[in-house]
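Structure tokens please, single chain.
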Amino acid sequence: MVIYGVALLALCYLSGVFLGEALGRLLGVDANVGGVGIAMLLLIVLSNLTSVQLKLGDISATGISFWSAMYIPIVIAMAAKQNVLAAVSSGPMAILAGVAAVVASFLLIPLLSKLGGDRS
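Here you go.
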């Protein structure tokens, strides 16, 4: 059922927020450090575990797949919007750091493509 997907998503999100807050406090930062990313990784791991080890029915597996697919575009977009608003209000250094990270990522694509080889 779809409810299993919602339950798994909620569990991963709450765990990610808790772990992100704990990591932030451990680092001395009054913020959630990586909570959304932790939640996404948990969701990927647990959704793959459920299909292999729990032997769920087709409808349950479909619900988990649906909510796993919905998590990335919705929650990551919300987190990205908050990060952009914080960067714009923080000044030019935060914006410059973000632009530099994106440019560096784009420049690494050809290198990673060569390292990955042809998979077709």
